Every structure is written in C-alpha cells, then in structure tokens.
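Lecture 7 notes: from sequence to structure.

We start with a single chain of 369 residues. Read the sequence below before looking at the structure.
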Amino acid sequence: MSNKFFFSLCYMYVGLSLEPLIGAIAAGNVVVIKPSELAPAAASVLANTVHSYLDNKAVKVIQGGPSVGDQLLEQKWDKILFTAAKHLTPVMLELGGKCPAVVDELSSSWDIEMTIRRILAGKFGICAGQACIGIDYILVEKKFKSTLVQQMKVFIKKLFREDPKETNTIARIINKNHLMRLKNLLDEPLVKASIVYGGSIDEDHLFIEPTILVDPPLNAAIMNEEIFGPLLPIITLEKIEDCIEFIRSRPRPLAIYAFTKNEKLKRRLISETSSGSLTFNDTIVQYVADSLPFGGVGESGFGRYHGKFSFDAFTHEKAVVKRNFLTDVWFRSPPWNDHKLELFRSIYRYDYLDLVLITLGIKKKSKKP
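Now the structure, written as tokens:
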C-alpha cells in the first residue's frame, strides 16, 4: 500500500489517539495507548512514531488483541478514554475517602483557637463525623502534638459540654450496624491503647463520645478505612513537610484541609497533592460555596456538581457547525497525491507561509517523511 493511500486510512485512526494524547500530556499525565487490533498497520505506525519522538517513560503504545485490552483494563487507571462501546451511561461518583487535616505549628493563641474550633466543628459538629468531607485524621509535627491535644480536650468540653450525650450537642450514630463497625475499629488492642480522650460507647442510644487517638498503628483498620464517625486519629511527623509524602502514599481523598501560614507549604500542597478539594485554615466551607465544583478524584470519585456545575453535569454541549457552499479547501478530497500531502503537512505544522508557497508552486516537495 503506497503512502498516499495509506494516509486516508491512518488519518482519523491516528488522530483519534494523538489528539487526546496531546491534552493528557499537556495536563502533566503519563499515558498508555492501546490501538485497535483491527488496523494493525496503522497501529504499528503509531507505535513506531511515538517510540521515536516521545519519552517512552511518559507515553507507551501497547499493541495486541482483545486479551491485551482485557489485561490493561484490570490495571488501576485515573481515566480511560474509549472510542467505542455497546452501551455506555455517563456517571458521576462521589465516594469520600480519608480526608486529612494538616496542622502546622502555630504561635498565635488566636490562630490556635480558631484552628481547634474549626477542626472540632468540621469533625464532630457535622453529623458526628458521618460526612464524606469530614476530617478523617490529623497530621501534625511531634513538637506541636501536646499543644494540639491539650487544646482539643479543652475545646471539646466548651463546644459539646461536659456530657454531650445528655446535652444532645453531638449527633447519634445512624444505626446499630454502623456503630458496631466503629466500635470494632476501637477494639483493636493497639488502637485502644492510643486513645487519649473519650472512647465511651452507649450501644442502646447509638452514642459514641468524641474520641481522640494519638499515633494508632498505620496498618490498623482505623487508618485504612474511612472512619465516618466521631473518632479522630492524630498522626505525628518529624517535620510538617512530611505530610506531602504521607498524603501521596495513600488513596486520593475527597478533601484536604491544611492549617498553616507557611506560603511555601501551601504551594507544595497545591502542586504536589491530588484531592477533590483543598481548603486552607478552615473546614467544610468549600461545600457551602456553590461557585466551586464539588467532587472527587481517583478513589474518592469522579465528576463534579454544585451550582452551575450541576447544570453542566446533566447537560451536553452539542457542537454545531454551519457552512456555506461558496468556497472549499480543494486538496481535502481524493485522489491523493504528493502535492496534497505536502499541503496537509504544512497545515498540521501551522506553517501558513509554507502552505502558500506550496500552493503557488514556489516550494518543492519536502524531503521529510
């Protein structure tokens, strides 16, 4: 098959792979392309071209039949783009996950108080922690741990009173099964030993006291399952910057909260972590702002809604093109020849001067493939 006829076969086939690839690379992703086995020659061209011109650590082309595609689909991906399917229903998933709160060392007593109040309200005040965007655990430097824990004990009593069960200042657990799940999280011996405040449970009244734990085992269920209740582990770090690697080592959360005045740390959290949302020096407020999208990423869900974003999620922007019959691009139609292919190459390179020179016959055929 000559190049000029092969071009018509490859044109859309390769374009369907390369066009989204451009956007994916521009957004900072690594990509795997699985070409259709029904066009092996075009797939081979794509594989050889990508291998020759792009970083193979960032972009790979994997050829093969349906079994290869099935094996690829068994892997974990952030996003999959298909160009064909028998039935497809678009979905949005809002899943949740373990939302961390990073607490930097704060020197001002007012900053500390605001931090504690907002953390406690975001954890225990919102449905007793039974909220997908509630704080799941805290990351703090070891040297600031004592101050944080001491102040949390004080303000729990201020905000929820001495006996929150009797004063009804904290919500009940939604049902008995959920309460027993939370109880089992606390019943692990090393987890129970890490409790520094609270821990009492009233099964008959579906009540769990606000509970603080310090450094429970990281392999315990409480640090690997979404807690969804009034249990708050505090994990200590040698330095607060270690929070970046800690968060990155775990599934991406629906929300990250960070209490800090350190602008460098803020920039690193923005650029080096991935989450549905990132809120500095407060909790939950991102959900109230209907001008912001709400949704997860990776394991915490996909898609987004809220305000105008909900409208966008349930509508489709249809592309409409209107043209007249007066003019046309003459070289867009067969029969193909070398002159037309040269014109196409100029267009793809956005080389409009070259396009004019070739059209006028001033420039000869390029020696490039």
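The mean pLDDT is 89. Keep this in mind for problem set 3.
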